[in-house]
Structures are given as C-alpha cells and as structure tokens.
Amino acid sequence: MAQYLPVLALLILAALFAAISFVASKLLAPRRPTEEKLAPYECGIIPGREPPQRFPVRFYLVAMLFVVFDIELVFLYPWAMIHRELALYGLVAILIFSALVFESFVYLISKGALDWGTLQVSRRQHNELVGSQRTSSSTIRRVGGEGRFEEVVRTREPVVTEEAAA
Amino acid sequence: MGGHPFLADGVDFGDVLLSLVMVVAAFVICLVATMLMVWFERKVVSRLQNRIGPNVAGPFGLLQTLADGIKLFFKEDIIPTRSDRFVFQLAPYLSLVPAFLTFTLVPIAGDFSGGNGSSTVFGREFYWQVADVPVGILFFLAMSSLGIYGIMLAGWSSGSKYPLLASVRASAQAISYEAALGLSLASVLLVAGTLSTHDIVLGQAGSLQTLNVVATGFVPFVVFLIAGTAELNRPPFDLVEAEQELVGGFHTEYSSIRFALFFLAEFMNTVTMGAIIVTLFFGGPAPLFDFPFIDFPHAWWMGFILFFAKLLVFLFIFVWFRASLPRLRYDQLMDLGWKLLIPLSLGWLLILGGIRVARDGNIGIVDDSIGDTIIVLVLGGMVLAVGASLIMLANRNARSERLRNEGLVAVANPDLGTSRAADHATTGPPGASHDTAQVGADH
Q1: Which end of chain B has the least Cβ crowding within 10 Å, N or C?
Q2: Domains of chain A
Q3: What's the gap between Cα B243 and its chain centre?
Q4: Is the dihedral angle over the CA atoms B397, B399, B402, B406 positive or is it negative?
Q5: What digits encode the pLDDT tens for the residues B173-182?
Q6: Do A151 and B76 touch (CB under 8 A)?
Q7: What is the ipTM, given to two decimal places?
Q8: Is A5 within 8 Å of B7 when comparing Cβ atoms?
Q9: Of B275, B280, B3, B283, the residue nearest B135 (C-alpha)
Q10: CB interface of B with A, residues 129-158, below 8 Å
C-alpha cells in the first residue's frame, strides 16, 4: 500500500490548492449580489419554469448498456493479462462470452435503442419543377443522388398512439 | 511488479520526504503545463485562423493565462439562488482533484535506452513518475470516471436548464466513449502483459516493433485517440459546451475562481490524456527505435526530451482537431461511439488475442504456428465482416421500423432514376442533364 502514498499526498495538495483558491477569492473578490445576478442565466430571458426533472428514457438505456460493456471489460482485462497461460481454453471462453454480449448488443441496435434525434429522410418530390432556391415547401434539394438514396414515400397517416392523441 | 523500489521495503522518514518532493514537483509541473497548454492552444488556433492570438502579457503572450487567472480571483463569486449550495461548491473539487491524480501515472523522464528508467538519489531508487500504483493504468480509468462526477454534479446543482441538459449529455457521452476507451486499452494490456505504466514503457523500449502502436496494429491507437478526445469533451466532441444550444454548457452558472478551476481541470486533462497516449502507445520517455549511428546520452533528461517531443505532437493534434473539425451532431456522436468504435475495438482485441495464442502454438489447427496464425487471421477477418454486416442489418431494421411507425415506407424505386432524370432535363444545367440521362438510361 506504500505505493499509494504519493497519490494520497497529491490528493491532499490538490484539494488544498482548490480550497485556498476559494478563500483567496472570497477575500479579494467583491460581493454585491442582486436578485438578477443570482437568477439562473438564460441570456436575459426571465426563467419561467423549473428545470426538467425527467429525461428521455434513452439516456437510461445508454447507461444500462454501458454497465453491460463495463462488466464485459471487467472480464476482458484479466483475460488480456494472462491470455498466454490460459491459451486456447481462455480464448474460446472469451469468444463465447463476447459473442453473447455482441448478440444482445445487435438486438438492442435493431430495436432502435441507440437511435437518436429525428429520422433522416429525403422526401420524394412529385415531378415538381423545383429550383435550387428555397421555397415555402422546401428548403433544400438534393441533387446528384438519383437512385442512390432510398426515397421515402408517405403511404398512410403516422401512427398516433392514444396517449399522444389525448 | 512495478512500483517505486524505494517504497517497496518499508517506509521511513526519508522515503516520505522524497515522495513529498516528487508530489510538489508534479503539482508545479501540472500547473505550469496547463498554463502553457492554454497559451499553446490559443496561439495555435489563432494562427490556424489567421489571427495573432495573445501577444501582450509576457514574451509571446506566455503569461496571458496567468493574467487571466489572477483576474478571475478578483471577480465576484456567484452562487445562484436556485442552486444546491453544497453540491455546487463541491463540484469543482470533484473535477480538479482527479485531473491532478491522473498525472501521477505518467513516466515523464528516465533512461529507457539501455537502463531500466530508474534514478537514484540519496541511495533511494525511484522512477520518474509520482506513483506506480499496483492497479496501474486502471487508476487512469477510475479517475476519468470520477472526473465525470464533477461535470454531472456541476450541471445538476446549478438549478438552471442549460447546465442540466449539458451535464446529462456529458455523462451519456462520457460513458459511451469510456467503453471504447477501455476496450482499446485492453489491447495494450494484452500486448504489454502488465498494468504498471513504468513496465508498459519499459516493454516498449528497444525497437519499433515493440512500440504498442505497432504491436497492437494501429487500430486501438486510433480508437483510443478518438475516444480520448470525446472523453475530454474537446472539439469535435464538445457537445457539452455547445454554446449555440446550451449557453455556456455545464459551467454556465459558475463564475470567478470556481469557473477557473473547471477550466484548469479541463486543460490539465488534455495534457494528461496526451501524456497517457504517449505512454501507452509511443513508449513515453523511451526512444522510438534504436538510432543506428548517433549514440544519445544515456541520462534521465534525454528521456524527458523524448517524452516532451512526443507529447507536443499529440497536444498539437488536439488543437488541430479543434481548429479544423466541425462539431458532431448528437446522433452522429452516439453512432460513432456505439456502432463503430466499440464493436471495432472489441473485435480487434479478440483477433489480437487469437493471433497471439496461435503464435504460441496453442491452437493446433495445423501443425506449425505460422499456419495457425494465418488461419486465425482469415477467420478473424471473416468474423469482423460478419459482425459489421450484422450491425448494419440491425441499423437498417431499426430505421425501417421507425419509418413504419411514422407512416413512411422506404422504397428502392426502380423508376426513380428516370423520373428524376426527367426533372433534371428540364431544370438542371445543360451539362448535368446529359449525365443524369445516362443514369436514367441505365435503369
């Protein structure tokens, strides 16, 4: 444990440095708080609402997936260290293990767990004479991609779930 | 096993004193390096943008950072009313202390061209790094995870919308890229066979083939560099501080010295990350290869010069990234991390392991180990290809599912070419119409 001694010393030194900086700032800096100054900074707009307490569930999915991969790492590191001694047995074991993790990873991707943001589609324009200028219906026009991009055609109304309709 | 020899056999007063001297030296080096890094970044970016950059405070503006730091001491320190006071005050510590501690692992000097990189003072043999802890490089991963707490809690405790959004983004980004970082690091450990940073450097000394960047086959290095940049929240991965969307990012509500400490931690992390890359992949203070004609002095300061030269290259690359690459969109960021870097580094690690087991003659598909290695290489390439196509398939499936849910259908329309070609024939420029007509005719 003696090897951790310098680390501990640096930890204390760094914390002291931060603490002394705060004290120095407290002594040197002016303190004239006003209500406006202490309000959350939103570029001059008066904050109307509390910050959101709930987040898109995707962030939690990413966190869970991270745990899965972190646990995989926990098993991979010891194998990486002694893979020579374990030889073929260790290699096969780690391959099976990785294949299992990878399989569930692929399943998650195919379920869209790692899709973010809006859907990137190029909508088909029905033989309109569209120039390169912006119009009220279109701001952008793709040229040169004929037949290469998959085109998207609206066939029916979007699926509206009951919660969304309510 | 690694570890300072002078700390291995009991600790007396002299040992403690030597440790303290090293700690203070490292502390000063950290601060000065950070100060110079800020100056370097501003100067290089401004040159790349055809500006002059800081040039007033000190020679070449070298003291600009110091001037800024001193100014920040005299600025009013604001703790917003809606903030969680305790956590708000705690967050800068959580950001700064891990930044310092990561640096302890980096060997910055020592004679690795022949010697074992140690020096002796007052009969005490030590390595040119603050600590060579038994967990070695895992300590780096631990500290980079702890650093995220600083950012996360800073944003959460501010009681303001944009810092909160930034901190949620930051933590999602950091954990996404940490997996890639850890997996590419595993390749290095596979080759090095040790966790101690000193031994990792020692193992790389001697020739070009033993450098980890060559021995691991370059890919882990690229993954590590990208994931490291993302871990630092540096451009092009600086969504945490995307000022167009998030005001100032997670430290919007921080002012005065609290802001300065975040800033310090950020740049210190940059320097340390560069140093870790140099240590892991480019042999730190060890020479890149055995120079054939010139005999360099075998002294500890030669190691320092080599280390510093290598470090400078990576610091320049970080700044270069910032000056030339536009910021990624959030979905692009997540796609790059999860769907490319993680599977790639995992596959690469397994292939590397397979090759090394085969080279030892432990697989036995054919009689000699070279044949085995080739078979493993081919099989590994096939597995990588299958994995990549599985991910692409899964991606496509996810996309078509989303399209279906929105009432859209993706069609690979065979008559598309002709109809679009007709469009172009009427609207496009004369030169283009010929080309598109060709495409249409092919269909």
Answers
A1: N
A2: 11-110 (1.20.58.1610)
A3: 22
A4: negative
A5: 888 898 899 9
A6: no
A7: 0.79
A8: yes
A9: B3
A10: 130-134, 138-139, 158
